[in-house]
Design brief:
Elements (H helix, E strand, L loop, with lengths): L1 E8 L3 H14 L7 E8 L4 E8 L2 H8 L2 H14 L5 E5 L2 E4 L9 E8 L3 H14 L6 E10 L2 E8 L2 H8 L5 H11 L3 E7 L3 E2 L1
Antiparallel strand pairs: 1-3, 1-4, 2-3, 2-10, 5-7, 6-8, 6-9, 7-8
Helix pairs in contact: 1-3, 4-6
Length: 197
C-alpha cells in the first residue's frame, strides 16, 4: 500500500467537503489503484486527508492525470487558506482491518521521537487487548521517517472513543506503552465529521 497525506488550514470546511465530493465525482472514476480516502477538519480548521493506493506507481499515475490537476486547482486550492503540504509513505501498516468507512469519529496522531521496533512490538500486545475496545474499528499507520509516523484510528463514535479511553489497560500493555511513549511527541487531530470513501 502507498498513502498520500494532504494537510492545510481552512476557514471554510463546507468548501473542503464540496471539494472532496467533486473529486469522487470527477476524478475517482478514472483514478488508478485507488483504495480509499479519509478526510476531515478539526475544530480549529486544520484539514487532513489520507488517500490510500495499491502502490506508488498507481499514485504517481493518478497525480499525472489532467483530471487530477484540474480538480486541485479548481476545487482544493480555493477551499484552503494557503498552500497545502504533502507527505507520502510506502511503509504502511494496517491493523484491526485497516480504515473503516463506518467510523463516526477519526483521530489522527502525528508522532515523532518514537521507537519503531517498540511500536511494532506494542501492536502485538494490543491485539490481545483489542476485544475490550469495541469502539475501535481499525487503523492505519504510515511511517514518515525513522522515528516518525502518522497513525489514523477509526472509532464508532467520539462518545464511545472517549468512554473507551477510560477502560484500564492491562499492566503489560501499560508498561510497554509508557516506555515507548516516554520520548515521543504527539499531535492529535480529531476529525468529528469525517469524510470516508
Amino acid at each position: 500500500m502507498f498513502v498520500q497525506m494532504i494537510e492545510g488550514q481552512t476557514s471554510n470546511p463546507d468548501a473542503l467537503k464540496a471539494a472532496g465530493e467533486a473529486w469522487q465525482a470527477e476524478v475517482r472514476p478514472v483514478a488508478v489503484g485507488y483504495l480509499g480516502v479519509t478526510a476531515g477538519v478539526t475544530a480549529d480548521g486544520k484539514a487532513f486527508t489520507i488517500v490510500r493506493f495499491e502502490d506508488e506507481a498507481s499514485a504517481r499515475a493518478n497525480s499525472e492525470r489532467p483530471e487530477q490537476g484540474a480538480w486541485f486547482e479548481e476545487h482544493l486550492v480555493p477551499a484552503l487558506d494557503g498552500p497545502p503540504t504533502f507527505t507520502e509513505s510506502s511503509e504502511v501498516t494496517e491493523f484491526m482491518g485497516g480504515g473503516s468507512d463506518d467510523a463516526g469519529f477519526v483521530q489522527v496522531m502525528k508522532t515523532t521521537g518514537i521507537d519503531r521496533t517498540g511500536v511494532e512490538r506494542l501492536d502485538g500486545l494490543f491485539e490481545k487487548f483489542a476485544g475490550e475496545r469495541p469502539d475501535i474499528l481499525g487503523g492505519v499507520r504510515a511511517w514518515t521517517g525513522p522515528d516518525s509516523c502518522v497513525e489514523v484510528m477509526y472509532f464508532s463514535s467520539e462518545a464511545e472513543a472517549r468512554k473507551g479511553e477510560e477502560v484500564p489497560m492491562p499492566d503489560e500493555l501499560q508498561e510497554a506503552m509508557g516506555g515507548i511513549m516516554a520520548t515521543a511527541e504527539i499531535e492529535y487531530l480529531d476529525l468529528t465529521d469525517p469524510e470516508l470513501h
